Amino acid sequence: MGEISRKLGLRIKELREKRGLTQLQLAEILNMESSNLSKIERGIQIPKEESLEKIASAFQVEIKDLFDYEHFSAKQDLITKINEILNSSTPDEVQKYYKILINI
């Protein structure tokens, strides 16, 4: 499978782990075989629309939130995006971003 299925799987796994669920527990909630959930999380299988709806509902998020996986992007892609934000910011905003970064 491609990059989208890999990142979608990572996002689903991330949401599952944040809620302290095992694959088996989530699979039971979704009425899905745990082996299918494992394939989805590994990016081997793309969930059907119905499954996406169930997954989003289980996590109490919108379907679009399952595709919020920019943080899984390559380091250089993230640096490029940060530079774009900084280049379009005012000097005051840049100073605020800097203060935030050094305090993380």
SSE topology:
Elements: H1 3-18, H2 23-30, H3 34-41, H4 49-59, H5 63-66, H6 75-87, H7 91-102
How would you summarize this macromolecular structure in one to three sentences?
The protein has 104 residues and is an all-alpha fold. The protein has 2 domains: 3-71, 434 Repressor (Amino-terminal Domain); 74-102, no CATH class. It is built from 7 helices and no strands.
According to CATH, what is the topology of the largest domain?
A: 434 Repressor (Amino-terminal Domain)
Write down the CATH class of the largest domain: Mainly Alpha
**Could you tell me the strand content as a percent range?**
under 5%
Which stretches of 5+ consecutive residues score pLDDT under 50?
A: none
Q: Give the assembly state of these chains.
A: single chain
| C-alpha geometry | elongated
Q: Topology as H/E string?
A: HHHHHHH
Question: What CATH architecture of the largest domain would you give?
Answer: Orthogonal Bundle
Count of DSSP strands: 0
Please name the fourth-level CATH homologous superfamily of the largest domain.
lambda repressor-like DNA-binding domains
User: Span from first to last CA?
Assistant: 35 Å
Overall SS class: mainly alpha
Average pLDDT: 91
Helical content (DSSP H or I, runs of 4+):
55-70%
Gyration radius from CA atoms, angstroms: 17 Å
What is the count of distinct domains? 2
Biggest β-sheet strands, sense, barrel: none
